[in-house]
Amino acid sequence: MPLKKKEIPSPHSLSRRDFIRNAGVAAAAFTILPRFVLGGKGYVPPSDTLYIAGIGVGGKGESDLTGFAKNPKAKIAFLCDVDDRMAVKSKANFPQAKYYRDFRAMLDKEAKNIDAVSVSTPDHTHAVAAMAAIQRGKHVYVQKPLTYSIFEARALAEAAKKYKVVTQMGNQYASADHVRTAKEMIDAGLIGEVTKVQTWTNRPVWPQGIPTPTGKFKVPAELDWDLWLGPSKFIDYNPAYLPFNWRGWWNFGTGALGDMACHIMAAAFRILPIDFPTEVECSTTTAWSGFFEEAHYNESCPASSIIYMKFPRKDGKGNIQFSWTDGGLLPKRPEELLPDEQLGDYGSGYIFEGTKGKLAGCYNIPPTLLPTSLMKTVTLPKQTIPRIAGGEEGHYTQWVDACLQGYGKMQLSSPFEYAGPFTEAVLMGNLALRSYAMQGPNGTTPGRKTLLWDAKNMKITNFDEANQFVKREYREGWML
């Protein structure tokens, strides 16, 4: 939790709280106060500073920390990464930050010196790192997807509430203006009651639907491979997984859904009264290893897929039919769209279908009524939803400010109370994909059916074998 303003910060040799206990209050206040006064323009006293630890500080982790640092009240105090090569830029950006490899050791040793933690590791370690921080009372920011499994998403949402910490999932476009504009348009009834939502992406842009890599390779000296594996089962190091292609392997990643759905599907979850689906089904690209020889690369996410889900509306007004396509597959082009008009941003997009019309867009482009000529004739609603200063970039500074204010004091764009159920729904698609790939006796494919979901009990009720994908098995020493 952030320090109260009346508390006096400590020198680096002591934790701030220990210093307060050990120092004479009157003398300390008298001798330290002039340092605050003389700090200069824009100086933020340590008592009003959020001390952040970054877990996973390369790639997206590096940009996340840079985003927090744009808030003058944030101090990147600790860096943690299992691969020294990935940490180079963050070490240069934050030279005063202390560096660790094992987040467990960092949290144990530096707990009193950390207010908040940012988790930007590969998907498979999101939950174990975030939970370790939450249980120590630290505010957390976790990259999308929030978790690797449905069970973990439920667990983190419950823990955030129990420990009263400020949380944010790293789907930064949840703070952009466009999703708020789309909600105002739909809430105003411009397309009537929504009955169907279509979403799509051109991801993956990394290899998927491929054989498991083989061969023996020496682990680079800069990498702690055992720590990188974290809760996943042990396998030999292979450079095919690093630094980014882990996304396409079920041991570590969550595929195209995990990468993009938390951006593209966010509009539907923010606008519509839905939380958990009751049904899910899918189909995927068939892989071939030879002439009429179907390949089953079950450790790799599929090259492309189509997923259908049914969501009951929480207001009792029927169901929402939801679809997701990836790998470059697109929904049917709306008849209202002219031949030379763009569908989404080409790579990604969404279409809301209502009883009176359609609304199309994407997380990074403005929502547009179809046909697009309506945008010139329809009176658009006035802004009723507060915008986030800085839009998607404000997603970071918003979390910093909320952490300093304390739990429940400030509304965020993607707190775990929202991001948890949302992530569960996203990962339901992956449960269907993994069930679809299962092979039964005599070449049967028992998972290729509509799966019925009991959200309260987190259970598929008509195909028990699919429930193995609700919760993963954890390696010893990495339990959630």
Summarize this structure as a short list of keywords or feature phrases:
single chain; Rossmann fold; Dihydrodipicolinate Reductase, domain 2; nine-stranded mixed beta sheet; six-stranded parallel beta sheet; Gfo/Idh/MocA_oxidrdct_glycsds; Gfo/Idh/MocA family oxidoreductase; nucleotide binding
Description of the molecule:
The structure is a single chain. The protein contains 13 helices and 17 strands. It is an alpha/beta fold and 480 residues long. The protein has two domains: 46-173, NAD(P)-binding Rossmann-like Domain (Rossmann fold, 3-Layer(aba) Sandwich), CATH 3.40.50; 177-388 and 416-469, Dihydrodipicolinate Reductase, domain 2 (2-Layer Sandwich). Strands 15-14-13-7-12-11-8-16-17 form a nine-stranded mixed β-sheet, with helices on one face. Strands 3-2-1-4-5-6 form a six-stranded parallel β-sheet, with helices on both faces. Strand 5 (139-143), helix 7 and strand 6 form a beta-alpha-beta unit. Helix 7 (150-163) packs antiparallel against helix 13 (416-436) and helix 10 runs antiparallel to helix 13 (416-436). The two termini are 22 Å apart. Residues 1-39 have low confidence and may be disordered.
